[in-house]
Amino acid sequence: MKTNKKIFEPYIKLASFFAKIYGPRCEVLLHDLEDLDHTIVAIENSHVTGRKVGGKITDFGLNLLLDEKWRDRDYIVNYEGRSLVDDKPLRTSTFFIRDEKNRVVGLMVVNVDISEFVALKAIVDREVTMSEDMLSNTFENEVTENFLRSLEEIKQTMFQKALEKTELDKAFHAGALGTEEKKQVMASLYQMNYFNLKGAVAETAAMLDISAPTIYRYLRAIQSENE
């Protein structure tokens, strides 16, 4: 799926705008989901997480593509993240960037370093609370985010999710799948932008025990159905 790069132009300006408003503790970055191995196309205050342009998506960002429950949301705010720099706690929010067909093609992510506030909260809690069960949760929900370290992790996670969606994960064996089941797996992978990953076609062919030309034929059919 090719992305119209002009979609990101206003968000790049907004990233700089927000970073200047909220200061050096606030990192703002943009993910272009066309290439899941190199999603970061712009970043402000990169010292917060130690990431840079050309870096990968996080596991939570990946799950936004995998889990249908997020598809109708415009944004998710105030969930917990962790920085690659000293494992610092972050308050993270994500805005979904959509194309003219309402497909999520990018993410605008705001990471706020709250490590000093968490340390201060711990001091206050220790002084004013009587027992640990009286302490409140720092974050408003239990969504957490971690940084995926390799392209292989991304591929494995996405392929497993595709099998789960087609209810084939419990007894997966490529030789036992029929043509329609293989197409179902590929359709799920296509919805996750899996085929934007380097080497995805060859690995899918191996996993499903079909040829690369067959993969491309199935892809053309799937793309036609989604146009």
Nutshell version of this structure?
The chain has 227 residues and is an alpha+beta fold. It has helices spanning 9-22, 59-66, 115-128, 151-165, 179-191, 200-208, 212-226; strands at 26-32, 40-44, 75-82, 89-98, 104-113.
Notes on the protein architecture:
With 227 residues, this protein is α+β, with helices and mostly antiparallel strands. It folds into two domains: 5-134, PAS domain (Beta-Lactamase, 2-Layer Sandwich), CATH 3.30.450.20; 151-226, no CATH class. The protein contains seven helices and five strands. The protein has helices at residues 9-22, 59-66, 115-128, 151-165, 179-191, 200-208, 212-226, and strands at residues 26-32, 40-44, 75-82, 89-98, 104-113. Strands 2-1-5-4-3 form a five-stranded antiparallel β-sheet, with helices on one face. A hairpin with a 5-residue loop joins β4 and β5 (104-113). The radius of gyration is 20 Å and the shape is elongated. The N and C termini lie close together (11 Å). The relative contact order is 0.13. The mean pLDDT is 82.
